[in-house]
Amino acid sequence: MRHARPDDLNRVEPLLETLRAVPGLTERKRGIFYKGAKAFLHFHEHDGALYADVRGAEDWERMDAARRGWTKIAARARLLARG
């Protein structure tokens, strides 16, 4: 598993745009979001599939970043960014 590269992130640009609009999140590098001073969300590629790692209260949660997973990722990011 490797961190997502620019070509990987092109596949989820609409999701990135949604995440950029979440109050409390800052995109320090394309596809890498912070909440305050802590890393909060980033992407990995594995065997052609893209995954989002979202920091929860205790640990990272890996979520499928396939198109069907975008809504869940955005909703989870909004929920956790508030707290």
Walk me through what this model shows:
It contains 3 helices and 6 strands. With 83 residues, it is of the alpha+beta class. The chain has one domain. Strands 1, 2, 3, 4, 5 and 6 form a 6-stranded antiparallel beta sheet that branches. The chain is globular.
Helix content: 25-40%
Major beta-sheet overview? 6 strands, antiparallel
Q: What is the SS-derived class?
A: alpha+beta
Total helical segments: 3
Overall morphology: globular
Work out the count of structural domains: 1
Low-confidence stretches: none
How much beta, percentage-wise?
Answer: 35-45%
How confident is the prediction overall: mean pLDDT? 95
The helix-strand sequence is: EHHEEEEEH
> What Rg is obtained from the alpha carbons, in whole angstroms?
11 Å
